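hey can u run this one w/ inosine 5'-triphosphate bound, need the structure tokens asap thx
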Amino acid sequence: MPKSVVIASNNAHKVEEVKTILAPTGWTFLSLKEAGADYPEPEEDAGSFEGNARIKARAAHEALGMAALADDSGLCVDALDGAPGVYSSRFSGPDCDSAKNNALLLEKLADVPDGQRQACFVCTVVFIDEDGSETVACGTCEGRIGHEERGDGGFGYDPLFISDDCGGLTTAEVPAEQKNEISHRGRALRALAQQLS
Ligand code: ITT
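ok here u go:
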């Protein structure tokens, strides 16, 4: 059955990727603004990707009374014991932005040689249907961290992330369709769509 689903995210790049990846479902996807959302942003304090995605999806479902989908994602770097992980968006502190996060990541990896710069993007999506029932799916994308930013596509850590599936390019250097094909988000959302179909 065609669904109308709000994407519970304040990250416009993420919303765009979700809409594109799930376009084949034929469902209608609305941003929070398009759905007329007017509720305080919930605190993401669950300590796990799944827990945080659930907090965001539930908040939208409860405020808007419609099906809601949330993505919680991040970059886990081996040499940093999995950091920044669930703290990826706030890695460089309260005034963080992507430029500062990326600069801090490069700084922390300055002495880490090639061969020890493995990293993985992780995405967990939580879908809450109109009746409150929940479906969860996950996806990952393996790669390594480069030595400088390259490319202007994507968002966040993309200019530093050299995916194992992109022939030495960062996920900011490949076309959006190629990123969506191999990305943690693409994998999680296609798994979700399959569960729901
Ligand atoms: P919402 O919580 O409102 O959805 P957000 O950007 O804060 O937006 P997250 O809490 O899930 O989302 O944080 C994810 C962070 O991980 C994001 O801000 C980026 O720094 C990074 N990230 C996640 N997916 C990424 C991707 O596909 N490319 C690059 N960086 C990504």
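Residues 9-11, 14, 44, 56, 71-75, 88-89, 101, 121, 154-158, 183, 185 surround inosine 5'-triphosphate (CB under 6 Å). anyway lmk if its weird
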